[in-house]
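S., here's the first fold you wanted:
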Amino acid sequence: MLAMTAGFLTILLWPSLPDYWVALVCCGLAILLYKTHRMSASFIAGLSICIVSTNFHFTDLKLLLTANSSIKGKIVSLPVQGKHHNRFYFELSQIEMGDLVVQTQSRVAVIWPGQHKLNQGQKLQLNVKAKPISGLFNQGSFNYQRHMLASGVIANVTVLEGKFLSQKVDFRAKSSALLSAKGEHLPAMRFIRALVIGDKREFSTSDWQVLQRTGTSHLFAISGLHLGLVCFFALLIVKPIVRIIKIEAHLALTCSLIIALAIGVFYSGLAGFSYPTIRALLMLVVASVFVALGQRIDLFRVILITLWIIGLIDPLGLLSQGLWLSILALICVVMSAQWLSTTRLKPQAAWHTVIAHWFVQLLKIQIGLAIGLSAVQLLFFGGISIVAPVANLVAVPAISFVILPASLVATLAQALGFEMLAYWLFTLANLTLEGLYFFLASLSNLTLSWQSIFVARILVVVSLSVALFITLGKLTLVRRGYFSIVAILLSSTLMISTMIDDDQNWKIDFLDVGHGNSAVIVKNNRAIIVDTGNVFGEHSTMAKSVVLPFISVAGIRDVDYIFITHMDADHSAGLVDLEGRFAKATTITNHQGQCTDRQINWQGLQIRVTQAMGLTKKSHRSENNASCLIHIAGGYGSVLFTGDIERPAEKLLMEQLDKSWHADVMQVPHHGSKTSSSRDFVSLINPKYAIVSTASFNQWHFPTPIVVNRYQRLGAQVLNTATMGQITIEMRASGPNITNYRGHRAPFWYNGDLSFGHYRR
């Protein structure tokens, strides 16, 4: 089982998706090795199963992508109605293409433009246009593509026309309607909905910020913690009732566990049987089987069996970030409880002694959890919450023993018609939540509540040192010596590498912001931002979702300048967000003569700013042609940002600029449009590297082949954020060093092109 699970886990590391024939070869090899090398055979068998299952998952992708399709199926999530469209997950029952009808159970993410009264459980027939799953790839950003795969989605589709096949809604949708009816009088109902049915649609941006900065966002998702509590409370109620029947003790325990798990299944149903909920439920089932069989519950075996079952049923579930966070959190809780539990209660201890004991134990677990998860927070979120132990110390008991039980019982009472009981319980949950949220908001407003990677690295090192010290106390003297030597060598290497860093080095990060531009120039942990990217959804911007998380992860202390090449939304939509975050930064735009032949010395780098002068025709005096040109040069290289200038501006600029505006790196004007990048202008700049910032599968087909060929004929290497993700160019004495997200930082198949060659515009 261990070897086969290891074979499943290789899905996390594949550089590309292996074909079926690879699985066939692996299967034959496993059969040959079974008698002599069972561990190797099991590993190869797990790999083979994983390859077959993953390829089968994409079986219907070609049908969806080759032409407009007609699909039938059921809505399997609570739809999110926005200003311009409705979004939901849709589980297909069939795909129709002319006379070809294919039965299927694939899942797609749907966008239906306009306003529509939709609900989970309804069956629809939709004429759609499908696109492959594609996401943005930057340090610190949410990996949408991997999330979609872990959620079972094979494509994104846009509805062209649709009709209802059935208006029947499921139990979760009915529960949502009941809770919505109560929401008018209960300000904290959005949190109750999240706890009862896993519905976080009404969370505001400020809500998410408070939960992130206090490390409590995990408490408002139906996870292993909530399922475990529901099953635990159910067990407490059911066990005494089962004992009344006076059946054999072991049988009574088994019956109690079955009933408790059935209630857990019901609660999972309230959450819509989302994939994270199913995985948490699976872990509880495995643990319950151990108890029912009278075996000692071993955490490692529970996790191993759970991963093995997930690998057999749905290997893509192993890509879920939430799965690994849950497992790591569980390990941290159990290990901290084992390591830090040094006191035991006497059999006849007084009630106040019992309360004090459990309070101390809870505090110890929170401290251990904070230390253990600090590295995880740093890895996934680019920082750590300093106030998380205090926040969770209050929030965990409040939610576990008051808010969650009261909300669930109130929902059940409401459904059964016990209005008065439901009213009082909802009121209790609401008042407790309002007090808890006020407490969490106060903590999140503290200056040091959230620390980015720069400070977090120090805290993680200290935390790991404490953990190492505790571990060393249980080792022999010789092993302590070995551990100490390794720690000293690693620390020395880190210090030496930091000390010998050349202070003339600088770098440019061209961020992947879809169709738009944003770049960050970094030197000595200080930065300049050029453009901010576009809006992101209906309530956010690329600055919030990409630029700020990157700055946090990169350990940048301050931003000194914010340049906006021009005021089109795809270059400037996040300006307000960045100015609010970096109040001391100087903003320079293309308006009011701010970029007319301006020169700045920034940490030894020479910055020159200009724009095309003398534009006359109305069509030439566009915002694009008024873009700032920003030239940054240091001892080790230079870069030119061109905004969206077009040929009329390029013609004038050729008269204004001389060869000193040559640049090693050039941001390709107007995202590679054929209206820009004239041969003479590109020859004047003479770049070695041409960076295109655009979206995957964009409707304008940028960059156009004629522009790409022009740069290549002139000796420039063309790099595209749509295919590479974030592109980093480090300017060093030895020359530019280029890395990108998809090719170097995370060169795995799930970050690659998921059209598999099937998509045609």
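And the second, which I think is the more interesting of the pair:
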Amino acid sequence: MPTISSAGIGSGIDVNGLVEQLVAAEGAPVKKRLDRKEAELQAGLSAMGTFKGAVSEFQASLAGLRDSETFNAIKANAANEGVVSVSASNQAQTGEYDLEVIELANAHKVATDTFDSANKFFGSGRITLQLGAYDSDSNTFQSNPDNVPVTIDIDPDKASLRDIAVAINDSEAPIRASVMNDGNGYRMVLSAEQPGSDNSIRVQVEDSDGNDGDLSGLSNLALDPIGQRGRGNNLQQVAAASDARVRVEGIDIQRASNDFEDVIPGVSFSLQPGAAGSSTRLDVQLESRDVVAAIEGFVKKYNEMIQVVEQLTGFDPETEQAGPLSGDASIRGVVSMLRREIGTDFSGINEQFPSLGSIGIETNRDGTLTLNSGRLQQAIASNRQEVVNLFARAGSADDPGVTFLAAGEATEPGAYDLDITRPPARGVLNGRALMQEGPLVLNDADNRLSLRVDGIASGALSLEPGTYNALPQLATRLEAAINSDPMFKRNDVEVSVRAEQGRLQILSASYGSNSRVELTDISPSLSRITGLAPGKGESGENVAGRLGSLGGRGNGRQLEGMGPVEGLTIQVEGNQTGNRGQVIFSNGVAARLDQLLGSVLDEDGILTVRSEGFNERLQSIGEEREKLARRLAETEERYMKEFTAMDATVGKMKATSKYLSQQLGSLPGATQGNSKGPGNS
């Protein structure tokens, strides 16, 4: 800004100070207005941030309530934890169950005779290790199809007892070997890695000395439960392979391991060491504490948000000041929408509890909520599903054979009648009825078959040769052989094999029109004893029916609604047709509030837009300040020019006055300023 250093010299006036005061006086009202407006906008922006924070915290409190799984939490306890450890999923069947442990599952353990050294030559040749079940009634051994036999070559240079143990442990055999000194000599102990009667050890030997069953050389390891000592059955049993046996509610149950996962639906329990002969009680109950805590958190955060709104938008009679967001339509709009959702009527879905008020959540005059915990707990105990409907995005069905799977964004909440016109079916291949009675004998030369299931072809399969006492035993072994196929495992293809009315039946595990079983090849002997022949079986069928007023789209066991229930998907079990009750879908308060607040808080939401509006107006205040600064600079420059001109004029006038005074003083008769007047000496 240009200045004149001599301003004021001519007139004696402080021109710079005078101009500064004039410019300040001219800009003061505008600056004051802008300062006041900026303070208001900053306060509004800060208040909007406070409100957004309260809304975000309230939305976070909805996380557990919008998910139906929170309401279905189930807890399982054992009265005596020294007997079993127990856990339960949210799909568990609740109740109290008496449990008695009869016997624990044990792994098979066998040992050699004692030898002088663990490092001297023991025997060379080849050993084959496998697991299976020994049937004492028929004196047969059936290998476990889940564990393929493992053959190990024993080299003469590495044929000590210790070397053989190392070779076994380095192999993929499900058997561990250890060498120990029992005080009388060295013994090798073989232990099955898994317990259960289907995991008994068998060791077949090809001894380099030519005799595979005697007590010399590698034959010392031979273990064939069908044979005799010195003739192929040469290992001593240390611990018998046994299944775990328990009695639940008076029913005897047997499993290969000490872990039980399918006795009580959704409940898993494991027998503890030393539990044989002990009893306990299992208590499987719905857990309500987490639900009550989640709803208490919901009420608390909602009330905190309402209190924040009151502080930001209300009027304080003591200070006689309104809140920074007083009159803000966006805040009023958000709160109004929240209150509307909290007051949603669910009478079209729920019969017993049609609103939040009916379970103890009341709205006060000031807009806050009050929770009656006693009424809430009674509601949960009385009809948990209707409480779920009030809060979560959830579905349920009257028929226990119908399971809610999913709903789409456009699915309308409501209760919809379900009619099934065709049940879902699996692809099936039926064998012919077998007339033979008594044992079924299969030799090892003619036992092959291959299949195509659900469009996936198996490799070459074989059924283990042996004597099968009954058709169900044959079905079990055939099912295991088919399901062990690598191609089927890789593609998640499974079958079940049943013995029905004197014939075998192979069913695909999948349902629907793509479910098929085709026998592509089978050897004559296996065909004869199984009754199965090459050919295509019957294809499965998709479920068909109506969900609501319109038909549904079937895919296997799944039925998807149409029209108002577009996206509503259920799974149907069983063969029952006709009316299957109602399917209920609810978009509960927590789910609806979460969706609403998500739209309010996102980058295009109303609160973000309002915050951006405050920032834009603050930016415009800065622009106005810049304009004011430019205008005042121009005013100052103008004043300086005017006052500088005035100062120069006044300076000239003073110079002229001085000159005239000097000239007048020089005229005759003029009194000199330094003369002495009369009477002066």
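Why I say that: The chain has a mean pLDDT of 87. The CA atoms of residues 45 and 612 lie 9 Å apart.

Talk tomorrow,
H.
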